[in-house]
Amino acid sequence: MTRPNMFIVHVSDAPKSARFYGDLFAMEPVFEAPRFISFELGGGVQLALWSGAAEDLSGPRTSEVCLNLDGAPASVDARYEEWKAKGVTIVEEPQDAVFGRTFVAADPDGNLIRVAPFD
Predict the structure, then answer these.
(1) 10, exposed or middle or buried, with CB in 10 Å at 0-12, 13-18, 19+?
(2) I need a surface site. Which of 18, 101, 117, 119 has the fewest CB within 10 A?
(3) Percent composition of the chain: helix, strand, coil (DSSP 3-state, to 5)
(4) Are strands 89-97 and 36-42 parallel, antiparallel or unpaired?
(5) Are 57 and 111 in contact (CB under 8 A)?
(6) How far is CA 11 from CA 39, 75, 76, 107, in A?
(7) What is the pLDDT along the chain (119 residues), one digit of tens a residue?
């Protein structure tokens, strides 16, 4: 069975967004072109940032990049404080959901990044 192996986040400026994601997740790109930059996530799966898509991607954003952490809820609250101190935009403050402690941040283009515990 073939499985997805790349998740593409549409951004307005791929190099700027790559610096944001690289700093946020402490990772370096594995491929760089002027409008497409990707990061290896492990197991052959990549996160790509693409500014080469159609000009009008202004529709609703319905997906999230999710970072699952061990040691929740303390680790989720600690990551929230770390990102807040970096000036990352927080769109949903830490709260307890049915799956555990979580919060949501946004990248410079408004793409959502959720932090949550491992199930």
Answers:
(1) middle
(2) 119
(3) 20, 40, 40
(4) unpaired
(5) no
(6) 15, 28, 26, 9
(7) 688 999 999 999 999 999 999 999 999 999 999 999 999 999 999 999 999 865 665 666 678 999 999 999 999 999 999 999 999 999 999 999 999 999 999 999 999 999 999 97
Question: Alpha-carbon distance 77 to 62, whole Å?
Answer: 24
The DSSP element (H or E) to which 74 belongs, if any, is: helix 74-86
Any idea which residue has 């949501």 for tokens? 104
Burial environment of residue 71 by CB neighbours within 10 A (0 to 12, 13 to 18, 19 or more): exposed
Query: Tokens 């790109």 map to which residue?
Result: 29
Q: Report the pLDDT value the prediction gives residue 18, as an integer from 0 to 100.
A: 98
Provide the pLDDT for residue 3: 86
Read off the amino acid at residue 9.
V
How far is residue 51's CA from residue 17's CA, in Å, rounded to a whole number? 9
DSSP letter at 15 equals: H
